[in-house]
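Contributing: when you submit paired examples, paste them exactly as shown. First protein:
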Amino acid sequence: MTTTLGDGLDAALAEALALLRGGDRAAAAARLAPVLGRPVEEGRTDSTLGDAAPLVAVAEELSGGSRWKTARLAYELLVEAGHADQAWIAGQTAERAALEDAFVARFEATPAMERLAPFLGGVTGHPVAALATTRMRPGLFDMALFRHAITFADGAAAVEVVEKVMRSDRRDKRRTHAEGLLFANMNADWLMAPRHLGTLEDGPFISTFQAFFDGTPLPIDRWMTTHDELLYRYWAKVPPPGLAKGPSLVPVFVDRLKALIARTLPAGVEAQLRAYSIDDVALILARRFDHIVALLDAMPLFVFHDDMHCGNILVGANGGVTIVEWDNWALAPIGTGWRFYATHDVLPEPEVDRIGWARALPPQATGYNMMLMASLWGWHRAVRDRKPELAARWLEKLVRYA
């Protein structure tokens, strides 16, 4: 797809948005067509406005380049055109657009040496002589991602670090605090994570720093095997006491159960249910609620990476893997995370023997009960990700294992 992201893009998007809000869908599509590099087929305005993918690609490219003011127009166009699933990211982009001028002044107009040399010198223990900075493509929740090659004045070996920039609001501060707590209590090598170097808060922004790992995303054909092996590794490790005040999924699971007992389902899920009605779900879970809560209290906890996917599992030149993005971890009962993407009605239970050799397990830690934990997680994650069909499959598993 060819897009035109030049100086006239703001005007084109603003004019198309105004036309759409004024009820002239055909004119809005015609104004938008050059931006997307595709003609409007006569009598088919939805060839431009009905297909979200081209405009989403433009919006993502703009966000990746910190052009949030313009990206906001693109996302508002998507929502106005009927793509309601883009509303949440439109709101997030609007928040970032309000900080765009401050971001440019701090991260683009200010030299990296001026901004970072004292901090990086402090966390590495060596005076910084020079920084060579390149920009990387950020993830969905990052405002920006920078790679800094550091040369030291005392002759110490050069290193490379990654800086992830987020907003210093309550949510992102909570994530960065949790990441700092994790690495203060657990060895990064054991987690198969890059070394965590610290956090720097600067006005409306907060940055975390970690050692750079030169790797590529895990190939999809290695996903299931690698993911299962990582889960067994993390399930087998007893979390240190210092993590007790960290984030936990146990109260989240309890709240999800209470919502189901109250017959509260996200839009689109009920229509996807095959084996149970919402009344069946509420009745069964109400009867089993105390039992499930008791199991949640009894099941051993582990450190769970709450955003595991191929993009966060990097493979190095020697075939080894490193897991990144640990700002979204939580304590969770073992079983959590198992085969989340599988929509099959029947899944293999986890192998308890692969955990019991490394840590003492209570009698409640059976493969069956681990599947209940997996089902609680699958339901929670699918709801959070707005995937009604997948949510329905996991809800049916949850009722079955309850």
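Second protein:
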Amino acid sequence: MEQDKPKVDLGRLVLSDVVDLQVVAVWGTSGDLGKTFEICKVFDVPDVKSKFGCRAWVRLMHQFDSNEFLQSLVRQFCMNFSQDKEVSLAQEGKTVGTNVLLKMEKMGKRELVHEYDAQVSSNRYLIVVDGISKIDEWHCIKSYFPDKKNGSRIVVTTQQVDIASLCPEQPYQVSELRHLSSDQVLYLFHNKVEKAEMGYGMPISKSAPVTTTDPSSSAVTSSEIQEEGSDNLMLLMVEISFTPHQQLQGRFIAARQSSQMVVGRSTEKQKVIDLVGRPTDSHHAKVISVWGMGGIGKTTLLRSVYRSQQLSGWKRAWATVLRPFNRDTLLRNLALQLIEEGPTGAGEKKNIATMRSLELASELSILFGKQNCLIVLDDLSSIDEWNSMKDILAKSRRIIATAREKFVAKH
């Protein structure tokens, strides 16, 4: 199955055969959760230790301070080299930590800078910069690391997707690293590399949408223009991804159409509104399926569409698909929202709260037959969830569904 294909391995990116300095940014949809663990699994393995003469991990706890930053790096570089002499130090009654401390105390600022320049100029280095919160911090930090074409690597973590997308060189790729839970996903932002460059033959992940920022690669091939639909439902697919300027771009692939519309952030809301309002020959629902990785802005975009005054003529209902999934709970939620906006009284609304499944389906069918209804289903995670309710919602005229997996969105 598509979701079982291998994920990108951070270790393979770090140990790849690419000689240029490479930057890999780790970003998650739930803040720092899981990032430290995934990087530690790479940072401390023997192959990485043997390949990189200089290794350091710096956590940015407050406003960036260049002196503290350099001191932390040099201290860890000295630790790397002192550990090779651990046996001889022990014989002298010394420890690695105290030996490094004494060496650092003897360094003035000039000696510190000289030691740092000597280390990064003559050794392959692996640096982890944890917690970048401002892009100007990153520009300052990157200036400290020369590209000696020796396979050095920098791994950065951030809670801001815009910063993660600015760290690698262009063009970059976005790949799923690990799916922690239904709403917690880790992603890698890394330089675009070929399979042959991955050192261990590790393919780039195809289990999650992979986007690039190379303008020349933005064209969609004919195989990607698909005509989707059935007797009851028309499908319009919208992929939310990154543009070269870290804006969102909507890739609209419309059923029974052969053209592609790529729009920027300033117009994507209007494009979705236009798609909702566009007349169709069918009396059945047109489905607008919005897919893309978690945290990239699908829900934010659709909330702005949902609240638009341009759709005031539509009866609207929004439901987030909760876990564990319960079809009747979701349908009851939709019915209560739609009837609340209609002419029915409070008594009938209370009856809906206690209706059984067949009665609930019948009530929705009657409602959909009377008025144009727009239904938003946020965060569908499986085909079974969609199949369980698509026949009931088929007369609602417009359905917008968000999903993180393309195979769910296509279905």
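If you have annotations for the second protein, write them as plain sentences, like these:
The chain is about 40% helix and 25% strand.
The chain has a mean pLDDT of 74.
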